[in-house]
Hints:
- The structure holds 2 protein chains of 2 kinds.
- By secondary structure, chain A is mostly helical.
- Chain A has helices at 3-32, 39-49, 54-78, 85-123, 126-132, 137-175, 180-189, 193-219, 224-254.
- Chain A contains 9 helices and no strands.
- The longest helix of chain A has 39 residues, at 85-123.
- Chain B has a domain at 8-91 and 166-252: 3-Layer(aba) Sandwich (Rossmann fold).
- Chain B is built from 9 helices and 10 strands.
- In chain B, the strands form 2 sheets. A 6-stranded mixed beta sheet of chain B has the order 6-7-8-3-9-10, with helices on both faces.
Amino acid sequence: MNILERIGRVFIRLFEETGLWFRMLVRTFVWTFRPPFEGGEWLRQMVRVGVDSIPVVFLTTMFTGMVMALQTYNGFHRVHAENFVGSVVALAMLRELSPVLVALMVTGRVGSSMAAEIGTMRVTEQLDALEALATDPVHYLFVPRVIAGIVMLPLLTILGDALGVGGGYLVGVKLMGANPVIYEQNTYQFLQMNDVWSGLIKSAFFGLILTLTGCVRGYYTSGGAEGVGRATTAAVVSASLIILFTDFFLTKLLF
Amino acid sequence: MNDNTPMISLQHVDKTLGGRKVLDDMSFDVGRGDSFVIVGGSGVGKSVTIKHIIGLIKPDRGHVVVDGQDITTMRPIDLNRFRRRFGMSFQEGALFDSMSVFENIAFPLRRHTKFTDSQIRERVDECLDMVHLEGVSSKRPSELSGGMRRRVGFARAISLKPAILLFDEPTTGLDPVISDVIADLIVEMDRTLNTTTVTITHDMKVAFKIADRVAMLYKGRIVEEGTPETFQQSQNPIVQQFIQGRAEGPLTE
């Protein structure tokens, strides 16, 4: 096989998988509005994606806010711009860090487990059994998970926003000795509502991406236990990459 | 509908999977109310065949006609609805391991009927009675033995009172005694529920016990078909080698 063939093969696979992903997106969308609606299952998945992710989100975003304050304080100190630490931390957390970090952490926690769960159902014929019971797996499995992702990620991001800004405040005021009143003022000074919304809209997209990728990877699992392992890894890697790509384009296009 | 038309009819079905031609111009008919058993060695496409009947796999060429309707050309949503006429039991049971036995059997009832909770409970009990199981409804599938898991799979398959029952290797991995019990159970279900039944197996004892008609699958097509008596007396060397389980013969060449 020569080098061009190899490159071609990679691209064909890439296009195939992109097409598959969008086809499943459409199928998920169509099935969302068809009865029966599994209310209990929707709630269960929301707890799984949202509530159960709170500890991880808590630690990740708070420490990120803290380290942001530490780093910018050291840097800005050199040009005597310590006053802007609060603004920088708030802007960075709200617009970028909280949505992306929350999405990446939840991908690792939940996207992977969805791929493993659905992949195991594939290799043990439970997906076939679902279909044989006149139930489309996309309807029963994908829809509640994807809805949970779209609803819960923005909520987790709000939590992350608050914790990140709070962590920054703690470090700035308690550790670096900034004036609490001025720090707080600076935090809000340059913020607009748009900063909050843009982060939340992005996180809703990320929620869709990470859950759907987990489900799709699980759905197309083949080859027993090893296949489930591959699907899990692939779910995390591809969801993370797609999140980082779309993050750039969403930021560029929309806001 | 005329009662002489077959319930299930595969017409010239071809299927290639992973570059290998698994089904090659496969055709057969199953009459209404019949118990049809397909036997064959491992990896000759028995599972693929049964999955074609319920539309889990689509043929590359040819048609699958069930109850007068061509399911190969059906829209996915119609096929999904059509599948309520089927009950299928899978090799290892394929029970939903996130649910209890009760929830497994109640699952199709909750989704496809307007039964109240007490009606569902009643129907689940009926189904468990039918497969001679009791006291397991709160257990998890992982707590059950292989034979019990099959039976729960049967109970789930019959919960919607299907017209067609499909059994994919119902006795594989079970000891001979339990295999015989399961075979009796299939005969009993076929009779009392008055279904058309298709079973695939490589266990000849089970096949002769439950079949009205037996067919031998070899190299992607049916090479011999008949009643258990005529099948047993077939002059086809492939069939004879398989029935007697010999290592030498056309199957192993």
